[in-house]
Amino acid sequence: MKLVAFVAAVLLGATLPPTPSFAGPTGAWRLQARAQGVVDFTLHYHGDRHDENWEHGFPIAGSALGLSTADLRSHGVHRRFNFSPDAGTFACEGWLSDGAGGGSFTFAPNPNFVQELAKRGIGAPSEEQQFRLAFENFSLATLDEMRADGYQMPDVDGLIAMIDHGVTSAYIRRLSLAGYRVGTVHELIRLVDHGVTADYAARLPRLVAKRPSAEDLINGVDHGVTLTFAENMAAAFGRLDLAQDIAMVDHGVSSDFVAGLRRLGYRPTPDQAISLVDHGVSLNYIERLRSHGYTRLSVDDLIRLRDSGV
Questions:
Q1: Which of 105, 111, 65 is nearest to 88 (CA)?
Q2: pLDDT of 148-165, one tens digit each?
Q3: Residues 52 and 128: beta-carbon distance below 8 Å
Q4: 9 Cβ neighbours under 8 A, 6+ residues apart
Q5: What is each CA distance from 90 to 54, 113, 127, in whole angstroms?
């Protein structure tokens, strides 16, 4: 359908700035069908300023939007449906064709949302904030999970900061399952901003000798200790302290270097691997020495020869 193509073309390239000003609760939507009745549903909002062009997309069951399988498979049908997160309702209207669709929405705030926030000890949002929370599909269940996990309840600005930085209920839940409950929105945001994913928090403790703290997780990411690196180092050396993994990354010891050493018959300690790199002993250097008959050199021999300019 031409209308769907037009809407999709208009929405391509939309970005999400931190906090747009409120210019009215109207905008556009689009969707793309996936498998098993799930659709990628996207809301788009354009405000008054040139930088107020932002969007939020997420997977959702088509049936949750009131759309049938026949609607999604049609070759052109006009539909009205509602998307109703806790903070309000997006009344949507537009066209569906061959698993794709697009159109416009009008937003109406949910008056009970303010009361529900008050029950949880959180102040009343402004119109703009309530629209933003609805737009980002914020769920009151997130606050309930935070309270159950002992988190300090944020104010409305804290809720906005959470969605701005990508702190979701799923993230909080997976952190909790991994044994990390950092207590405040500020600390949650720090983890996300430093790139600590829920998967990282869940898997890294199984790859190192001592369970890392939340601050250790941040240090690990900041120093470039990936899950793949930690896994390879655990396979080569046994589970190490995270500090040892960090030291190897900082000194340029790569997984390929360690694997190459093992292929050449060396079983260095982490400190020896660091010393080899620090002294410029590469895999190519070792292989060139071997090509000249030096096949039984120890790690210390390799370092002495390199330092001597051989």
A1: 111
A2: 999 999 999 999 999 989
A3: no
A4: none
A5: 16, 15, 15
